[in-house]
Each structure stands twice: as C-alpha cells, then as structure tokens.
Write a structure and sequence with these properties.
The chain has 233 residues and is α+β, with helices and mostly antiparallel strands. The protein is built from five helices and nine strands, in the order ββββαβββαβααβα.
Length: 233
C-alpha cells in the first residue's frame, strides 16, 4: 500500500551465494534515522626513498561498507513489528538484541564464522558481513533491566569468489558489472541501463543461470558481462 511504513529487514545466510537462509529474518522496531554508504579504492605507495611526495598506484577496489545506528526500545511506546511479541517485553531489550545478534554476530558452527547477511530496506539491498557492533544502554527499569539501547553497526560488502572472478575479466576491454537487485527491477530494464539496450536480457539470464528472469529477488547479485560475452552465442 502506498505510503505504508517499510521496516528494515536483516536476513542471515549460511552460504556466500546467499541461497541458504538461517533462522528467521530480524525486522527492526525503529528504522535508522540515516545510514552511511562508503566506497573504497586501495592504493600501493611506491614512493622512492627521498621523494618529495607520495605516488599512489592503484591496487584494487576495496569493499563497500554501510554503517548506521539502530535504537532498541522496550518501554511499550514502540509497537512490536512481530506477531506474538509484546510491545514491552519483561526482559527489556535483551531478547530483541539477542535475536538480532543471532542473525549477524553469533558464531555459526556450520560455516565456522558468523552468518552472511543481507540488509533490505527500500533501495538499500546490501549483501555483507558484520564488521563492528557497539551497544550503548541508555534507559533502565528500577531493577537495572535495560529498556532502551543504541547500537552502532558497520557492515562490509561481500561478493562470492565466483562473482569476483567473473567480474575480474581483465582480458576484456569492457567492464563486468555486478548489480544488486532492488524492488521493482526487471532484467530488460537493467540491461538497458548497462548496455543501452534491453535486447540482451536472455543472454544475461543464461549467464547468471536464471530459470525465471521475470521474477528477480531483491538482494540478489547479478553479473552483467562485457557486451561481447553477452552477445556471443
């Protein structure tokens, strides 16, 4: 429905292709007031001894990162977004925080690390892994139970080795594009945006192994190869 409030959803996965979901996604109670999206370019400094200035040489494109703050509230003022969970849980914000940490931070024995994560909120569809998590408890019951907490978070963008290998295609004069699908995207529209023509969508679907190109899942990463690869049978 137009104008309805969309909450950020945080989903955990046990594989780097983001196909094996772990547990239930976490729906935030209060959306972030803002978020910072950072791009990184890494250089090697080949400055000779005695040189008067730096001479950075391109090394590689570093991982994107997203950072923001979440507010957890158990005072009863904020309606619970989860059916069956009260607006004012008796344990304060503890259960909310535990559920969130289970998605992004808790060690997953099956992969010997925390989960892979997708942050989904409108145009933000970010495949990533947790980098930092800091909690500041700000309001308490008389017995010391925390009722409100602020959590500062940062996530590093993640692409599988297979995706990076395909995107690295250094022998081609054209650049391979990695695109994260957002709500409303279609393959012909994305092809038109990248190639200037929507006619290559079947080749791109085949390149990505898509069985149904008409239903793109938000958060999925698609590879758009150099035009020669996309048009050659």
């Amino acid at each position: 429905m137009a104008g309805s409030l969309e909450k950020m959803i945080v989903t955990g996965y046990s594989d780097q292709n983001f196909t094996a979901q772990v547990g239930q996604p976490f729906t935030v109670w209060i959306n972030p007031a803002s978020y910072q999206y950072r791009y990184a370019v890494l250089y090697s400094d080949r400055q000779g001894q005695g040189a008067s200035g730096p001479s950075p040489v391109f090394n590689r494109v570093g991982p994107d990162s997203v950072s923001f703050e979440l507010v957890f509230d158990a005072t009863g003022v904020v309606p619970s977004p989860i059916a069956g969970v009260p607006d004012a849980p008796p344990d304060g914000v503890a259960s909310q925080i535990d559920r969130f940490k289970a998605v992004v931070l808790t060690f997953n024995g099956a992969i010997h690390s925390p989960n892979y994560v997708i942050l989904s909120w409108a145009q933000l569809q970010f495949q990533c892994r947790l980098q930092n998590l800091d909690i500041n408890y700000t309001l308490f019951k008389p017995d010391g139970t925390p009722l409100r907490a602020r959590m500062a978070l940062s996530f590093l963008g993640f692409a599988s080795e297979q995706a990076l290998e395909k995107a690295a295609n250094k022998g081609s004069p054209d650049l391979t594009h990695i695109v994260t699908v957002t709500v409303g995207d279609s393959l012909p529209t994305l092809c038109h945006k990248i190639y200037g023509s929507s006619l290559h969508y079947l080749r791109v679907a085949e390149f990505n192994g898509l069985n149904d190109f008409r239903r793109l899942v938000p958060g999925t990463q698609l590879l758009f190869p150099p035009l020669a690869s996309a048009t050659t049978s």
